[in-house]
Amino acid sequence: MKDVAAIILGGGRGTRLDPLTRYRAKPAVPIAGKYRLIDIPISNCINSQIKQMFLLTQYSSASLHRHITQIYHFDYFSKGFIEILAAEQTIESEHWYQGTADAVRQNLVHFHNYPYKEYLVLAGDHLYRMDYSKFIERHREMDADITIAVKPVTAEEAKAFGILKVDSERNITAFYEKPKTVEELEPMASKIPEEFHENSGGEEKRFLGSMGIYVFKPGVLEQALRDDPTADDFGHDIIPSMINKVRVKAHFFDKYWADIGTIKAFYDANLALTNINPPFVFSEGRNPIYTHARFLPGTRFENTQVNNSFVADGGYVQAKRVNHSIIGLRSRIGRDVVMDDSLLMGADFYQTSEEQQADKDRGLIPVGIGDGSRIRNAIIDKNARIGKNVVIGEKEYSEEIDEDNFAIRDGIVVVPKNSTIPDGTVI
Questions:
Q1: Is pLDDT above 70 for 160?
Q2: Measured in whole angstroms, how far is the alpha carbon of residue 110 from the centre of its chain?
Q3: Does the global pTM surpass 0.85?
Q4: Residue closest to 413 by CA, chosen among 425, 386, 395, 388
Q5: For residues 405 and 385, is the Cβ–Cβ distance under 8 A?
Q6: Burial annotation 58-77 (CB, 10 A radius, 16+ → b, else e)
Q7: What CATH number is attached to the domain comprising 378?
Q8: 254 and 324 assigned to the same domain
């Protein structure tokens, strides 16, 4: 795989993940207590022996850049690298990236420095594990110009996907972006190969959704981007326009894959990790997910009942109960706290007891969750200061709400990074 370059798209604003993306790029959003979303495609590349990567960034990218530069270092003999290509003004373009395809278009000049045989284009906000080398090999066997990873989906699931119609030779013959009605969807049904029936749910899943993962021959990608300078997005513009021009093939994938594009999807994907049989496991022996190698002690518990939860390092938990929740790095949870169905991202720094007392002396609430609080159906972002006897998430919300120190999305309470919730607050 030394002649394959991965292009990871990390520049999107991530408005549907607000307020988690208020101060960070979407791929930098923490997941599973200690990782970040960007760790997923990078780890998949490393495990697939693809070690030449370009990361395209734009919005609020400081923490993303810091994460990459601190962690991912390749030795001198592997010729591996992750090159960050931030949006910039050039002679050819003075504009920000207008979409996924435009981001690649504006950086073509950087890819020409290397004689790659294929470009692997990846999103930075999906949760899955894939051996890209098998994907590339399948692309070569089919002599495809473009190969798209597709996932069998039901009619209901199809509403959130770009749907591809595939013939018996795995040629993609049509594309429809997120069909909403039966009339739009039914003509897009494809015959799912028999070997995928067991894992895909059999005949119930009659449609093939695009996973937003592509392999391009370099010349084909450059042609597609230059033929129509107004084509800004791969899913909406490039793929539909190329179906009848070149050989566009499908690569079937039937394992776990989640698009972490909304607060609800993010919340569900995280809490699914706490299930007895989780759909995704970060610590798979030969194909681990890599991240920051921190040297933190194990989390300390005092008289706490912990059920079906995922706990990262460096915490101090005195809660009464933690149930079906994720506890992030350096989390501090006070006495008699009850936490159910929630995600606490933790903190970027660890407060000692002396530092916490100093905050109290200045009238500040220490970082973490104060004594006697009840947290349910919530996402608490990093460095949040939750006071004593706070109640979060025990109400039912039917609409979105935006306040200075919290937001409601799909009935989930989100406390943004660095926010403070005063003692006794009820949300």
A1: yes
A2: 25
A3: yes
A4: 395
A5: no
A6: bbbbebbbebbeebbeeeee
A7: 2.160.10.10
A8: no
